[in-house]
């Protein structure tokens, strides 16, 4: 096999969650007095662990944002995701084929909290592929763009990170995969790929149906 293991990000790679999450975040930031467009919010926060951005929110709102605010966000976000979440198009067949080709040596390595990741994978019917192989940046010393969560996933699969493929969709995530020593494939259904290439993605693709062939 070309790779010892394949490590997937979650949001924007397995599930189409980012527009939903960012809509809730924009609403709550607006309640604090920080008005952002969808594009501005995505640019500030996509791919990052929100718990590590609380100081930025406080600086832009002049308001205290603590664990209680973060918990409220997670509750409101989770309710919206449970109602509206959809899988990324063609992801079920792609994961099924990659899972089979790599003898089940795949994992989900996300910057999000574990409760969210597991809830989303169950919601879209992907949990069976990743159960027991889910890694959260909330549980590592540093989250993306640092490589910790990908290194943890590779270690758990007894795989050399340099012989792993990472599937990402953000500059933050690509940076983390490259820092881990992995070969990074970036999913970009639309838009400019320059930033992802600059971050170190070796292949950029727009349809998950193409991913299994890229892994061979």
- Tell me what portion of residues adopts beta-strand conformation: 5-15%
- Spatial order of the strands forming the largest sheet: 3-2-1-4-5-6
The total beta strand count reads 6
Q: Any idea what the radius of gyration is?
A: 17 Å
Largest sheet: 6 strands, parallel
**H/E series:** EHHHHHEHHEHEHEHEH
pLDDT averaged over residues:
95
Unreliable residue runs: none
Count of discrete alpha- or pi-helical segments spanning 4 or more residues: 11
- Classify the helix fraction into a percent range: 40-55%
What would you note in describing this structure?
The chain is of the alpha/beta class. The protein has helices spanning 18-31, 38-45, 54-61, 67-84, 91-101, 114-124, 127-130, 148-156, 171-180, 194-199, 211-215; strands at residues 5-8, 106-110, 134-136, 164-168, 183-187, 203-205. Strands 3-2-1-4-5-6 form a six-stranded parallel sheet, with helices on both faces. α1 (18-31) crosses α2 (38-45).
In short:
The protein is of the alpha/beta class and 216 residues long. 48% of the residues lie in helices and 12% in strands. It is built from eleven helices and six strands.
Tags for this model:
globular; 11 helices; 216 residues; six-stranded parallel sheet; alpha/beta
What's the SSE blueprint?
Layout: E1 5-8, H1 18-31, H2 38-45, H3 54-61, H4 67-84, H5 91-101, E2 106-110, H6 114-124, H7 127-130, E3 134-136, H8 148-156, E4 164-168, H9 171-180, E5 183-187, H10 194-199, E6 203-205, H11 211-215
Parallel strand pairs: 1-2, 1-4, 2-3, 4-5, 5-6
Helix pairs in contact: 1-2, 1-4, 4-6
